Every structure is written in structure tokens, then in C-alpha cells.
What does this fold into?
Amino acid sequence: MNTLFSLSPVFAPQRIPLQKAELLFWPAFYPPEVGDHLLEELRSQPEWRTQHIRMFGRLLEEPRLTAHCGSAPYAYSGIALPPQPCPAVVARLQADAEAATGLAFNTALLNRYLTGSHYMGWHRDAEPSLGPSPAVASFSFGGERLFKLKPRDKANSEQSLSLLLPHGSLLLMAPGIQEHYLHALPKTAKAVAERINVTFRRVVG
It folds into this structure.
């Protein structure tokens, strides 16, 4: 299998260097017609649900729909997701993400943003089960949304960035990102189409 830093030219990404880490970005990983087909398959999955997370002592609805699958359990924000088989469309995405990055994943979290009022606040993927330096691969389908990233150390604010995620794109947050940065998908008042985001991680313990 390829390593992260010896990718096949077919899958060569744009590299976005940051202090202590980097993002790898494939803005057109899938052509539009393939992206359209994958989006429709993802929409048809029956497991979409609204989860509840505990914040500031209150139980709140997540501002998006989610689904989960994979060979390993995954937990975040007090939500425990047991292992369960992935549908064929997610298995294909996982295989493509692994071929492109040279990494192995065992859990998939799917996020569905129906409107611009659905969002993801500032956070980092720092669950102990992911190990000390996790990588996260993320496919985007549907409406373009803005991905934002900022350093945890406010003294390094020049390392903040905003990146528009096109339909059919793949973004890899390489090791180091979760230790040193926060990321978000903010709300927008603009009219945006539905977006489905499929993220892959490796649970190690």
C-alpha cells in the first residue's frame, strides 16, 4: 500500500502546509456525474437520524443529520455508535479514500446538512479511541460549503484558513491537525443546496 507521502500521480493532491501539520486536498476527486450518483445513493440510506449531544449540562439536538457504520465502535460528545456493516456506497468511498491516502480506516461518520442553518461548530477530533495523532478523510457531495480551520494557540492566528469544499472533493486532515487546530463548518444565510459529508477515521483502542 502507498504511504501518505508517496501517492500515485493519479491521486496526487494539493498540499496545504500549516505549522506542525498539513491538509491534503483533492478538489475534483470525482467527476460531477459520479458525484451526483454517489450523492443520490447516500441520500437513500435509511439510517439518517438526529442525535442529541450534551453541552453546558443540557441535552441539545445536533444541527444536522448523521449516520454511522464501520467495523469498530465510535463515540463522540457522549454519543456511542456501535459497529455495523457499511452499505456498498460507503464501502466504495472508504476503498477510494484508502487508495488515495495510503491510510487504513475502520469507521465512517456521515453528516447531512439540509440547509445553510445546519452546521458544525468549532471542534477537534480528539477522542482517546482515535489515538494521539489521528488522520481524518472527508468527502463532500452536494452544495459547496466553507470549511474553516484555526490554530488552538491564538498566537498563531495567521495559520487560520477558509476552504470551499466542492461537490465530489476529498480533504485529508493529516496527523498533527487535531492536536494543533480546530475546524468548523459554519452556518450560512446564503441559499445552499443540501450537502452530505462522509468522514473516515481509524479507531485504535
Observations:
- Confidence is low (pLDDT under 50) at residues 1-9.
- Residues 13-201 form a domain with the Jelly Rolls fold (CATH 2.60.120.590).
- The CA atoms of residues 3 and 102 lie 5 Å apart.
- The longest strand covers residues 107-113.
